[in-house]
Amino acid sequence: MKSKTQPALFQNFSIKTIRFLFFALVLASCKSTFTTNALDPSLFDYLERGNEQFNGLLVVNPINQDTLIGHNHRKYFIPASNVKIFTFYAGIKLQKARIPTLKYHLSDSTLFVQPTGDPTFLNPNFGDSTAFNFLKNYSKIALITNNYVGDKFMPGWAWEDYPYYFSPEITAFPIHRNVVQVYKNDSLLVSPSFFESKFSISDSLPIRKQHSNYFFVPNNLKDTLQIPFLTDSELMAKLLQDILDNEVVVSKKALSRNQVLHGMPTDSIYKQMLWESDNFTAEQLMLVNSSMLSDTLSFTKTRDFILENHLQGLKQQPRWVDGSGLSRYNLFTPESFVTVLNMLREDIREERLFHLFPAWNAEGTVQKPTTEENYFIYAKSGSMGNIYNLSGYLKTQQGKVLIFSLMSNNSRRKSSAIRTEMYRLLQTIHLSY
């Protein structure tokens, strides 16, 4: 009787790893060309705007591994917020159903708290009070914040973005998403109220001094402003003490043993990151991911673990420098995004996947989650100056689900014009397959 064991080449690989390597091998064999099933050639004028912008596209049928369209799909692009697809994938691989909101140990009536980087603590975007209600029960808290290894800002972030809501500092224990929220009624309404005395009325810019927590709002302020505050361990302890009305001190003592307090469902966090393109949530999520590997919070630790253990087969290894895509140092290929999107499709049932990924049309990300049948694109966009990218899943009229990555760099055109052309191209693919 012949042995039914696997060939020696595959004995040390799981079935999922073999599938990944096969998918990568198929993509690697694809030529950079159009295989369009008689699509209107004029649609591809957009892709070949060589003098106006640099475009790349890969469309794959994951069922039979057929490459339908390939153009510059092995070239590197600045991905902007498409990076959040990799951050999402890291979370899927490392997180459980509920986020580890903090680690703790009670010793001699003092609760020692070691943060996990959880972005949800008193974050108005989430409304979760699990950690707050837990900490409220202890009269003395020792906060350990020296377990974060990294800078407050990631490499390649624009320094002048420091006072804007989309660029809060990265910390081990973020509070109120590390921003102050202010609204002007008869008086200034500031949250957290700890910062009330730090505000002044002024029409001059910037809205915060660069190296201190002094804030300025215009006299005619009509909308709510969210302004990042400057963080340090002592300030976070004071802020937490003010919120809890309990004693909070900073400690450098490492926990010899700990328990884990779990907070809100991770799917709610992924959805906030993907639908709202929440940079803060993305960066902090990479720290939470690393807390599943050790007590050290580190973007680099998470990135290296994912690349070395789950994405070692990528044909074009990315330059991956942050979790949000704010950095122009990031470099990814359309082929890498399609590969990871295919792996997500294998790991997550379709109903859940299309619930977490944003619906998209020519106007951009649909503002509210929907299950309406007229949406056929479920994808993450990524944009910044001169850049617009879109990667995700495309439902065809014949009921197929295709995976695509459509990337556009180096354009001086308006994003709205690029979106319109992208939608027209994807709509034609939707009708043709």
UniProtKB/TrEMBL annotation:
- A molecular-function term among this protein's GO annotations: carboxypeptidase activity
Q: From which residue to which does the signal peptide run?
A: 1-38
Kindly give the InterPro entries that the UniProt entry links to this protein: Beta-lactam/transpept-like, Peptidase_S13
Q: Which UniProt keywords apply?
A: Carboxypeptidase, Hydrolase, Protease, Signal
PROSITE patterns linked to this entry? PROKAR_LIPOPROTEIN
In Pfam terms, one family for this protein is: Peptidase_S13
Q: Which family does it belong to?
A: Belongs to the peptidase S13 family.
Name of the protein: D-alanyl-D-alanine carboxypeptidase
